[in-house]
Every structure is written in C-alpha cells, then in structure tokens.
Design a protein that fits this description.
Structural class: alpha/beta
Largest sheet: 7 strands, mixed
Radius of gyration: 21 Å
CATH architecture of the largest domain: 3-Layer(aba) Sandwich
Bound molecules: pyridoxal-5'-phosphate
Shape: globular
Distance between the termini: 42 Å
Strand order of the largest sheet: 2-10-9-8-5-3-4
Length: 392
C-alpha cells in the first residue's frame, strides 16, 4: 500500500482508537508480576473496574480477547449438559451460543429478530413454562455490535424475576461497557462479560468477568473442566494483588490509565457524550437516503450504527473505496449481514470532529462509489450537534 499522509480513521466498533495517554502508559518497562510493586497496580485497577461495571463484587481480568470472557463465564458456573437459554438476536449472541455448545452445554436458542432487542415478554413466558427449572442460565447481549441494537437488561432481569426463575443471568457488555450506562449490581446480573478494546479504549487482549455472589457460589459446584479460566484460583491471588499466572502487565498499565481517564471525564458525562454523538450519527443516515438497521428508536445503540445498503448489497465495495480513498475503516457486515450493511463505530476515545470527519468520509465515499444517495447526511448531523445544548 502506498504512503498515506495524516491520521488513519479507525471507526470500526472495536478495536477502537487508543488515546496517546494510554499508549504512553503502556510504553513502560514490564515489571515483575510477583514482585513487591505489582499489588499497587492491582489495587488501583480493581476498584476502577468495579465502578465501570456498577458493582461492589469481584471482577476478573484474563489475558485474552472478549471471547475468552464468554468461555470463562460458562465454565465457571455450569456443568456438562446443563441447559442454557440463549436469546439470539445477532452475530455475537449466536457466537456465544456456539461457544456454549462446543463446551458441551445444552443450548436452547430463542430466535429473535436481529433488528430488535430482547423480547422480554417472550423470554418471561418461556421461563415461566420451565417449572422444573431445567434452564440453568439465560444469556443475552446488552449491545449487539453486529446490528447496532441494544437491549434493556433491567427488563431482562424483570423477566426472570416475574417468572420466579432462579437461572443465572449472563450478559455480554463487550461493546457497551464504559460507553453506555451499565449496572451489574442493580440489574442483578450474575456474570457480565467484557473486554479491553471497545469502550475501555485499550488494545485487544484483556477479557473481563464481573460476577455476583450467586455466580461465585455456582462456581463451587460447576463441573465443566477449567484451568486457565478458573475464578477461584484467580480470586485467591487477586486478593493479594497478584495473578495465578503472568498477566498482561503492560495492558494493565493501560487499563489503569483508561480508568483514570473515565474518572476524570466522569462516567455520566462519558455516557452523555456517547448518546449525543450517536444521535448525530443517526441523523446522518436518512440524510443519505439510507436506513438504520435497528428498527426501534429506543433500541438504537450509542456505540455503533449499522447502516443497511439500498437493495441490500454493495457494502463491502463501498467500505473498500472509503478505505482506499480516505483512509477510513468502517465495520464490515457480520454473518448473514455480510455486504448488506456497514457499521460506523462511535465509541471510546471519540469527539465531535472525529464524528464529523467519519461522516464526511462516508458521504464522500457514497459519491466516489457512484451510489445513488442524498447529500444531507453530514449537514443533518452537524445541525443536530449545533442545536443540541446537552454538551454545554
Ligand atoms: C467485540 C465483541 C466481542 C468479543 O470479541 P473478541 O473478538 O473475542 O474480542 C463479544 N461480544 C460483542 C458484543 C462484541 O462486540
């Protein structure tokens, strides 16, 4: 590829842009993870993570991508053949289900509409039918990064409660944590899975599990084989500020800095910034004569917007042109959405001008690709930003 001047725009919905402050924090000598200084780092990281998850319980950090967090959640709480109910409304939900199946769990799929959030009344009636409590866990994705649809986890919790069902509630919050309001304790989630490379603004390589007391006690009885992912061993070591095996020390430096940045801005302001920039991004889509994939206004994600191509094809050609012409990376359509949609990531270390640049890239890309479109997208987004006073 030929020389490219200026800055690359990485506007996929994760990995996200890593701020300079975090890059500098990572760029330090690795220390002895069994030495006397290490617990000082751990002692800062765990409380910071608890705040972001909205929990006073334990949070585990594994050196892995987000998929590792899925596996850790399952192997620590369940036994071979246990039934889990997976609400499938997107690519990541489907993949989590595939992981569960490969681990020997009996996965019952509740097929949802990929353009909608979790159908809580339907979930509740299925749980109410399960009088003998065969279902050991309910799996749901807070923010489906493939479709740009978010689900209301407080309502998912209510569905379990109304059905008086004791199943564990496990939630994937990989592309929402640190960007959208998330309340592990208040929503009584048993395991929340997340990772480093989305709202936490870090490179890929850390996976996270926030766990409830109920999940920890399930861990004592769970019989799925586990070693690397074992929470109990991890907990013992973490209590002393250490890890049972070598952690990603330099990514933990980065995490320490990321948590400081989120604290400096204030989580509520972080969420408001994402909400505002997402709304501006959404205004652009009809301005181009295109369609937002997420059907319901109140289920549209504040971290990613999935855009449906007219006649449902040509998204990959458009993305290729935009990358080659403007050095802007947009997210690809995943699974059955391949080539039908493209995704604009608007999360993490991100501001108004980065959004404006991104939207300009899309608008110029539509023209460069010779696709029929309206040219009101950028204008509509900027108009929203100017008129919305919530940032002042
Ligand atoms: C990014 C992501 C994951 C994790 O994927 P990895 O590639 O393993 O890091 C899981 N779930 C969702 C919703 C995601 O967006």
């Amino acid at each position: 590829m030929s020389f490219r001047s200026g800055r690359h725009f990485l506007q996929i919905p994760g990995p996200t842009n890593v701020p300079d402050r975090i890059l500098r924090a990572i760029d330090r000598p690795t220390i002895d993870h069994r030495g006397p200084d290490f617990p000082l780092l751990a002692q800062r990281i765990f409380p910071g993570l608890q705040e972001v998850f909205g929990t006073s319980g334990d949070v585990f950090v594994f050196p892995a991508s987000g998929s590792g967090g899925w596996e850790a959640a399952l192997v620590n709480t369940l036994s071979p053949g246990d039934r889990v109910l997976l609400y499938e409304n997107g690519f990541f939900a489907a993949n989590w289900g595939a992981v569960a199946r490969r681990l020997g769990l009996d996965v019952e799929v509740m097929q949802g509409d990929w353009r909608r959030g979790v159908d809580c009344p339907r979930l509740e009636s299925r749980l109410a039918e399960d009088g003998s409590h065969q279902i050991q866990a309910v799996l749901a994705v807070h923010n489906e990064t493939s479709s740009g649809v978010s689900s209301k986890i407080d309502r998912v919790r209510q569905a379990l409660d109304s059905a008086h069902h004791p199943a564990l509630l496990m939630v994937d919050a990989v592309s929402s944590l640190g960007s959208m309001d998330y309340r592990h304790d208040e929503w009584a989630v048993d395991v929340t899975v997340s990772s480093s490379q989305k709202g936490l603004m870090l490179p890929p390589g850390l996976s996270l599990n926030a766990v409830s007391a109920k999940a920890l006690s399930a861990c004592k009885k769970a019989r799925l084989p586990r070693s690397f992912w074992d929470w109990q061993e991890m907990l013992q070591q973490n209590r002393q500020g250490y890890f049972p095996y070598t952690p990603s020390t330099n990514l933990l430096y980065g995490l320490d800095e990321a948590l400081k940045m989120l604290q400096e801005e204030g989580l509520q302001r972080v969420f408001a910034r994402h909400r505002r920039l997402a709304e501006a991004a959404r205004r652009a889509i009809p301005g181009w004569g295109l369609e937002i994939f997420a059907l319901q206004a109140d289920e549209r994600s504040d971290t990613v917007t999935t855009v449906l191509m007219p006649s449902q094809q040509g998204a990959d050609r458009l993305r290729k042109i935009i990358l080659e012409r403007f050095d802007l990376s947009l997210g690809t359509g995943l699974g059955p959405l391949k080539d039908k949609v493209f995704r604009i990531g608007h999360l993490g270390s991100f501001n108004e001008l980065m959004l404006a640049g991104t939207l300009c890239g899309v608008e110029m890309g539509l023209a460069a690709a010779g696709l029929p479109h309206r040219t009101d997208g950028v204008r509509a987004a900027l108009k929203f930003l100017q008129e919305d006073s919530s940032a002042e």
